[in-house]
Design brief:
alpha+beta; seven-stranded antiparallel beta sheet; 5 helices; 29% strand; 235 residues; single chain
Length: 235
């Protein structure tokens, strides 16, 4: 069994908006079935909002091993298109499903144009059998240079649970006639105690931290983006 203390420093407890309640894994079932059961309960990795009391109870001792958290991961790739073309593609959230391994599209006010600063949209996502929706807001829209948005609400059918979740950023740097695209994921769950975040991540991703999980997702996204854009341009 792994327990997180029931009390948190006031400064931390005041700011947490997404948290966990007790997560149970029946010791009578095997780890594989148990993790599957837990994943079903937490769906896409977000549990109901609670107070400042945190407790994760789990029958898998390895989930209780706490490691240092990585709050940011990134990767880059060179794509044989100009920065403006790469930016134009990435800054249309409705198109993200073409290259993202988890996103399957977005509801955007103007889906066929680059999303300007301040645009709020809802992203549709999947991970295995799970489906969920996020609410996001564009925080940077510097054409040909930088595009970013923060994820601040999530839910199964509607993004009802609000709070800092993550920020995604894309930078575009010219390399000759090509573009180096750098994608960065930042974990915005700073108010979450590391022990809770680690246990939570292991359940939501099937045994990994979100940093490790997103490292692979970013690499896949960039490879897909390169393939799609270079195919369109005939490079």
């Amino acid at each position: 069994m792994f327990l997180v203390p029931d009390t948190l420093p006031p400064s931390e407890s005041r700011h947490q908006s997404l948290a966990t309640h007790i997560v149970h894994a029946d010791t009578k079932i095997g780890p594989s079935k148990g993790l599957e059961s837990l994943a079903g309960k937490v769906a896409v990795g977000i549990l109901p909002v609670t107070t400042c009391y945190w407790r994760v109870s789990c029958a898998f001792p390895e989930i209780g091993v706490v490691v240092a958290r990585r709050f940011t991961v990134s990767d880059s790739i060179v794509i044989e298109v100009p920065p403006e073309a790469a930016y134009e593609a990435v800054s249309r959230p409705a198109q993200m499903g073409r290259w993202s391994p988890e996103n399957v599209g977005a509801t955007v006010p103007a889906p066929d144009t680059s999303a300007p600063l301040g645009t709020t949209f809802e992203g549709r996502n999947k991970r295995g059998a799970f489906r969920w929706v996020t609410r996001c807001t564009v925080t940077a829209a510097d054409s040909g240079r930088r595009f970013a948005f923060r994820v601040h609400a999530i839910g199964l059918n509607r993004p009802r649970l609000r709070g800092p979740i993550a920020t995604w950023e894309y930078r575009f740097e010219p390399e000759g006639t090509a573009t180096r695209v750098t994608e960065t994921w930042t974990d915005d769950r700073r108010a979450w105690p590391s022990a809770v975040a680690h246990a939570f991540d292991r359940v939501a991703t099937g045994g990994r931290t979100f940093a490790d999980f997103q490292t692979d997702n970013i690499a896949r996204t960039l490879r897909n983006l390169k393939r799609e854009l270079e195919a369109e341009s005939g490079s």
